[in-house]
Amino acid sequence: MRYLKVGAAVLNQTPLDWEGNARRIRGVLEEAAREDVQLLCLPELCITGYGCEDAFLSPGVADAAREVLGSLLPHTSGRLVSFGLPVWYRKALYNAACLVSDGRIMGFVAKQHLAASGIHYEPRWFSAWPEGALGEISWDGSALPLGDLVFEADGVRIGFEICEDAWVASRPGGSLAARGVDILLNPSASHFALGKHAVRQRLVLEGSRAFGVAYVYANLLGNESGRAIYDGGALVASLGEPLASGPRFSFAEGQLTTASVDVDATRTSRPATSRPGCELSGGVPVAGLQGASPALVEVPFSFEERDPTPPRTAGPAWEQSSSLKEEELTRAVALGLFDYLRKSGSRGFVVSLSGGADSSAVAVLVATLVRLALEELGPAELASRLPFLTPILEGGEKEGGEEDLALLARRLVKGLLTTAYQSTRNSGAATRHAARSLAEALGAEHHDLDVDPLVQGYLELGAKALGRPLTWEEDDLAMQNIQARVRAPGVWLLANVKRALLLSTSNRSEAAVGYATMDGDTCGGLSPIAGIDKAFLLRWLRWMAESGPSGLGPTPALEAVTSLAPTAELKPPEEHQTDEADLMPYPLLDAIERAAVRDRLSPLEAFRRLGPRFSELPPRRLAFYVERFFRLFAQNQWKRERYAPSFHLDDENLDPKTWCRFPILSGCFAREIAALRAYVDERYPAPTPG
Predict the structure, then answer these.
(1) 363/372 Cα distance (integer angstroms)
(2) pLDDT tens digits for range 475-516
(3) Rounded distance, CA 451 to CA 463, Å?
(4) Rounded to whole angstroms, what are the CA distances from 350 to 222, 441, 444?
(5) How far is CA 211 from CA 10, 75, 157, 235, 635, in A?
(6) Which of 153, 257, 296, 354 is geometrically suited to a Cys-Cys bond with 234, CB 3.0 to 4.6 A?
């Protein structure tokens, strides 16, 4: 047995925040020194930040990354550390990881498979490194190897799979195992999506088993650049068994997860197909690159054997919850809001609280971020991260006692969250009560604003301009929209005065069909729930009202919200307006959206797939809803283009900037809808009148 101590760090970085990123890296390097870690893996592109976008193409970014790396080298004394940074080679930019030994750079491994789907756009900036290719780059007067490298330190071989490399069928781990690698490092920037962590765990565990290695996985943490949220979750595994796992959704700036790995055990248990033979020959020549075979880099480093430590894989209780999806959503949005707030320099949040599901969900998520952050960080650290809250925090905590912490959380919510119920003559007492009750329960600063005189003023202006009064019979949509638009200036004013961030409250189902008023309920600087479908959001609200996150408990005041049918309240009360009457049942809408957008089915294909699932609907009614969805989806792409930035929470997103691109002007599925109509008319003819 030969035990070595390895570590995986997660970091909450910010693109191009050179001093901040370096400080956080130094923090985990210092912790690794205290923990006597011998081999440390840092996340992908941790020096620059992963989300630099087109700034990557500026030569100055790579130059700055070089300088920062140089400043960090002295902090690697006595250990091996991998850093992530962009590297230029022969007019191409590569996403690389370098291995540093005791302050000395030993070489660079470039990413072979670039993430190019959905939220990822790596081929726009980086080139993929060909398997087996080698090169050299000049670094401070020295020639350093770059390419498909294996590092050998004291007889222990180390290789890399960089994030996406592990998600493809032909992952590099197979060839690295054949070259005798003992430890695989995976520096990643793997964004959060609901349910994705389980897939990530399988990739790490199966990689360690199939390749007969110890596998060290490091990830980013937090809302790095605005849209993507990283959940952390460092992992160490060996031979298919977990050895250590780090927490997810932490509010910390960086965290270290360590484990003991037995390199002798991996060698003796390694599958016969991956045992090294002539592993350093037979590389594939690549035109324009130096070398033609994989390279072994000798690293001057000695591993001192360490005593084994027991595996540490038990996660928090919420990870085992039957409501895991609800728990993940809560913690992801809370962390995303916290980071967006502090990185944008804002001093709070403003929400137009209608008493409906969407705005109530946003308000509750803001309050939840306060409770989670206070619980993890404590008052002092929270004050250092959000200095504008210091006056509230000073003298607010007494020794011990959950009640004192709960009272402090309420005071913090009052200083952080401002809500406003903006009524018109079409607003109901039930929504007014729901909004006020929820705001009081959360501790928010709440305002009840009557905007009906403003609405009537605009209607009078319109009537004067048109030379006739506006009526519901002729001007229904315009009269609804003006009410929503009138609500925007007041909350923008509050946000400006308070230097706060106005949160838009639109959800994904509304975005799909354009059921939102531009410059009205879509107003805001951030739209935190725009990636969540309405059917799940309603389920989440019921869970929050009855159970709530592990350790926090329920929010009973939400029962006043969940008891109401979702409604825009823009028509006269006697019309009994509801969202589903205006559109269709939300579960059906979300099912059609998945068929149309995620699975790329035509209207006819979507109709045929969904018929058995929604058999309670008459076929012609289902066809009507399918046609309505496709028509509205195509007509309202322009709205989706104008939505405030949203969090990526689900790999079924509609954000045109990161996930679902669709033309603003199109044929609106006219041919496809005609095919659906012909199919339905043939198989389900309309009843003959009389």
Answers:
(1) 15
(2) 999 999 999 999 999 999 999 999 999 999 999 999 999 999
(3) 19
(4) 22, 17, 10
(5) 24, 32, 13, 16, 50
(6) 257
Task: Round to whole Å and give the CA distance between 541 and 326.
Answer: 9
Q: Are 293 and 148 in contact (CB under 8 A)?
A: no
| Distance of alpha carbon 466 from the chain centroid | 47
State both tokens at 603. Answer: 């209207």
Amino acid identity, residue 426? N
Provide Rg for the chain, Cα atoms.
Answer: 28
CB 254, CB 27: distance < 8 Å: yes
300: Cβ contacts below 8 Å, ≥ 6 apart = 101, 102, 104, 153
The total number of residues written for the chain in this structure? 690
With a cut of 70, say whether residue 157 has pLDDT above it. Answer: yes
Tokens coding 7: 């570590």
Largest CA distance in the chain: 93
Distance of alpha carbon 297 from alpha carbon 150, whole angstroms:
6
d(CA 101, CA 425): 71
Dist CA 529 CA 541 (whole Å): 12
Q: What is the mean pLDDT of residues 1-22?
A: 96
Residues 567-618: tens digit of each pLDDT = 888 889 888 889 889 999 999 999 999 999 999 999 999 999 999 999 999 9
Tens of pLDDT along 425-436? 999 999 999 999
**For residue 119, what are its two tokens?**
């939220």
HSE toward the beta carbon, residue 656, CA cutoff 13 A: 17
Q: Which of 540, 650, 662, 664 is nearest to 596 (CA)?
A: 662
Residue of 194, 198, 237, 199 whose CA lies nearest to 218: 237
What is the full DSSP assignment across 336-388?
HHHHHHHHHT---EEEE--SSHHHHHHHHHHHHHHHHHHHHHHHHHHHHHSGG
For residue 566, give Cα distances in angstroms to 355, 427, 578, 632: 10, 13, 6, 20
pLDDT band at 309 (very low <50, low <70, confident <90, very high): confident
Q: Is 618 exposed, middle or buried (0-12, 13-18, 19+ CB in 10 A)?
A: exposed
Contact 108, 267 (CB under 8 A): no
pTM of the model: 0.93
Q: What is the pLDDT of residue 400?
A: 52
The two structure tokens encoding residue 377: 């960080």
